[in-house]
Amino acid sequence: MTLKRDILLAGAVLLATAGLAQAEMTATTVNDLNVRAGPGPQYPAVGLATRGSTAVLDGCIEGSRWCRVDVNGMRGWVYADYLQVDQGGSQVIVEQHRAEIGVPVVTYESTASVVPVDPQPAPGDELLGPVGAVETITPPETVRTYIDTNPGQTVQLGGDVVVGAEVPGDVTFQTIPDYGYRYTRINDRPVLVDPGTRRIVYVYQ
User: Fold this and answer.
1) The dihedral of CA 173, 176, 181, 184: what is its sign?
2) Which of 72, 82, 98, 178 is most exposed, with the fewest beta carbons within 10 Å of its own?
3) Residue 7 DSSP symbol
4) pTM of this prediction?
5) What is the DSSP pairing of strand 90-93 with strand 83-87?
């Protein structure tokens, strides 16, 4: 385990403002999400944390949604919108309650060369919203055929493209003939969206 962590930490320095004596903060993932080698979508994924996984939360970068976690034997970075912690018997989203639950502040300095994947969301770009519950669907093959023949333009958004994530209000959807869900392409990945809730219901691989 120590060797694996050392490898993942190569080229990075993590500095926590909280004291070493502070008790570990435990969080739970609210959906399947990528654990990344650094605090940004341009960093490679070190693995996938499945929904309901228990994670040790080191802290989050001040002014950023990226948090450092240890989950399922992986050490890396995830969005605070996709983590929840227990607060007085209720589960709350970390990003929405960082001050109340006392999330430590961490910083990240990269000494390694990381090449961003083009194109990437720029600082200040809109993010996918918090993940919510949606009905599991299996779209018919005719839907994928329609998407392949009508690719449309891609929208660049921050955050992991996962089922349940809320799409910002200024993103437009394409109508699919004889089908209730709509289609858009986020970060070059085709997704189906519930037009009523604006939540992603299916992500094509």
Assistant:
1) negative
2) 178
3) H
4) 0.50
5) antiparallel
CA distances to 75, 117, 129 from 114, rounded to whole Å, are 18, 9, 26
Closest C-alpha to 161, from 80, 41, 66, 28: 41
Omega before 119 within 30 of 0, i.e. cis: yes
Tokens at residue 155, please? Answer: 């929208």
Mean pLDDT for 102-122 is: 58
| Closest C-alpha among 159, 64, 56, 70 to residue 105 | 64
Which stretches within the chain are classed as H helix? 2-9, 98-101, 141-149
The continuous run of DSSP H or E covering 16 comes out as strand 12-16
Least confident of 56-70, 76-90, 123-137, 187-201: 123-137
Q: What tens digit of pLDDT does each residue of 121-176 get? A: 444 445 565 555 667 788 999 999 999 998 888 888 877 788 888 888 888 999 99
Residue 68's alpha-carbon distances to 47, 65, 114, 198, in angstroms, are 14, 10, 18, 28
Q: Are 117 and 127 in contact (CB under 8 A)?
A: no
Whether 34 and 56 have beta carbons less than 8 Å apart is answered as no
